[in-house]
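Collaborator request, handled under Task 6.
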Amino acid sequence: MKRALIVDDSRSARVILSRMLEGYGLAVDSSESAEQALEHLKQSRPDVIFMDHLMPGMDGFQAITAIKGNPDTAMIPVVMYTSQEGELYVSQARALGAVGVLPKTVKQSDVSRVLYQLRLVPERREARADVVAHGGANAPMMQIDPGPRPSVGEIEAAIRAAIGPILKEHAAEMRRFVLSSLDAFARRISAEPKPEATVETVQEPTPVADKPTEQPFTRWPLAAAIAALALLPTLVLSVLYTRTIESTRSLMQSNARLAAVVEEQQAQLAAIQQSVETRTPTLASVTPPTTAAAMESETVPYGEAPLAGARLERLREMLDNLKTVGFRGRIRVATYVGEFCLTGNGIEGYSMAADDLPIRRCDFVGNPFEDSLTAAQRQSLAFANLVSSVRQDTGDSLTIDVAHEGRRPIVPYPKGEQGARLTAGEWNKIASQNNRVEFVAEPAGT
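Structure tokens returned to the collaborator:
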């Protein structure tokens, strides 16, 4: 189990942060002062330390200096947990070895971001991050496979298989109803008293011609009732069959419309892929690098700091290549933000939506992680050290400028009805192309 150490003289602050960390499955130890924390580190090695700044005796900066100066504890990440703020304070904390700064009024999303960056909790985006990080800006976009389309015969057979048992059950129920009705009717007829027409006929004989006219009149209602009850199941089955045919035709029309929509989306994705390929030239395509600006682009998985990880390695490779050819000028590093389809909430945090989720069911479309970062938080400590070392090694002959350009997509997002038909996976493929870092080498004098 991962362990965390909280160093704060405020008991309430320790309790609040401890509960947040325990919610992520971390075991939490706490110390009331920096001196007590240093004694604790002699016996235990936590996976992360949350350090307050203002404490009686040794303050937070002095404690970080002592921790980083000890080879046994130098590799433990330290996060400042303080009411201090401002770019100057963040820079001082990073210079002493802190990996980040959290406010005293910490939010659940701030804690989760730090734990994900330090890989102290299971990463919910590992599969998605691997696809985007290894694909790069020039990776071919995946084609959506709509799967085998059922034929009209298969649809009709499926409908018949689903409705057939219902029709049989209904016919059997109607048959039982008719038989029970006839049986009750027969019992009622047999229970009625016979008329005294026989006695009257003996005493006062009636003409023979009157008997045939009386007999059909008394049997006609019974025959009509039997015929109506016998035809009732047939009428019901006819109505159900007619509705089944209409439903089948409606399903066939819907299937045809869906097929047309899928073909249209495939054509749009092909056009988007061609647009990306024509708008993202690489450094290798620009010859020579010392006479014209060269640009490289690297995508940023959602939830990662822009100037860290694969983007940092790409910048190192670019610097090595430029130094080899004697490049003089500046490298402009620009970060751009993509709009992702996300699920979750502002308290527990957001994560990438499932690929098959319709775009209209996304809880949030945007990039709350990127929006919450300050200029210092967009840069990892390793990136800041690299920029500083380049400045010391090359002086003014090679400089690195960093700028945040915000939301300027290179691949347009579908709008209106066209965008409403997309899934989260299709939308996020576009967002991942726009969530990027661009490295532009501009020779001196251009």
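The cover message to the collaborator said: "DSSP finds 14 helices and twelve strands in the chain. The longest strand covers residues 398-406. Please let us know whether this matches your experimental observations."
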